[in-house]
Design goal:
Layout lengths: L1 E8 L16 H13 L6 E2 L8 E10 L8 H8 L4 E9 L11 E9 L11 E2 L7 H9 L24 E9 L4 E8 L6 H14 L4 H10 L14 E7 L23 E3 L1
Parallel strand pairs: 3-9, 5-6
Antiparallel strand pairs: 1-3, 1-4, 2-3, 5-8, 5-9, 7-8, 7-10
Helix pairs in contact: 3-4, 3-5
Length: 269
């Protein structure tokens, strides 16, 4: 049988999703917990990679397991797993389903707070900024759905078979006080470092250090800007993954900073 696991994790203390030598990953912790509970070695297949310190308020992985269990596996795993990884659902699937290759839409949210707050330091990126030009940032964001080659905003474009990404939505939100920001972007796929590089450039535009025309030039020509400073990792969340056969709402609605909808606490710029 094949099972999809619907989970969320706070990635601040991990070196990303993917298992790697000499560094703790989310995949390694989950494989260890499932192996311990099922008492058999298990390999899991995730819906994508997230970088070090990046989180996921919605994420899916699958396992192939011959033996069915006659106990509450989700309950047992959540007891074994650390507090920063949670399993929300375990869903039986057709054998052909694949957590990574069948995903058709992915949404990320990037959170910024512009005042020092010790309670947000591991959940959102802190930038001590004043008087950002939000109109210029909005103009740049509007360009993201008009172009589909993101070679200029990729950390290692030569490692990708293609740098084409079909961005279908890109928005900027602010909270009621105007001192927290949320950038949301949806696409069929994303390149390595792409979102953090884009956010870094948007902040430069807001500060007047980079122009909207220069931003569009990079999108048009695939010429990488001379200076690339990616935004901090801890503000980035994979927040929604959609399949042709599975479209679940995120389970983070209890938290206004993590939820994947423009609720009363956020207003689109």
């Amino acid at each position: 049988m094949k099972y999809f696991f619907h989970i969320g994790y706070h990635g601040f203390h991990y070196r990303g999703w993917q298992r790697q030598p000499n560094a703790l990953s989310v995949q390694e912790v989950l494989e260890g917990a499932i192996t311990k509970v099922l008492k058999t070695p298990v390999t899991i297949y995730g819906c994508g990679r997230t970088d070090a310190q990046v989180s996921a308020s919605q994420y899916f992985f699958h396992i192939d397991e011959k033996q069915e269990w006659d106990y509450d596996l989700m309950f047992r795993l959540n007891k074994v797993l650390p507090a920063d990884i949670a399993i929300f659902d375990i869903i039986p699937m057709e054998q052909s389903a694949h957590a990574r290759f069948d995903a058709i839409i992915r949404t990320y949210d990037y959170f910024i707070h512009t005042y020092k707050d010790p309670f947000l330091s591991e959940m959102s990126s802190f930038y001590l900024l004043k008087d950002l030009d939000l109109n210029k940032i909005k103009q740049a964001i509007a360009l993201l759905t008009k172009y589909n080659n993101y070679y200029a905003f990729c950390r290692s474009p030569e490692k990708h078979n293609s740098t084409i990404c079909e961005v279908t939505s890109a928005k900027l939100f602010t909270d009621v006080n105007g001192d927290k920001f949320r950038f949301q972007i949806t696409s069929n796929r994303f390149l390595k470092g792409m979102i953090r590089i884009i956010v870094g450039k948007l902040l430069e535009i807001g500060k007047g250090e980079f122009t909207v025309d220069e931003f569009e030039h990079a999108l048009k020509t695939q010429e990488t800007p001379r200076l690339i400073i990616p935004a901090h990792p801890q503000g980035l969340y994979l927040s929604k993954v959609t399949y042709p056969f599975l479209d679940l709402p995120p389970r983070m609605e209890f938290s206004s900073i993590l939820c994947n909808k423009a609720d009363d606490g956020w207003k689109e710029v």
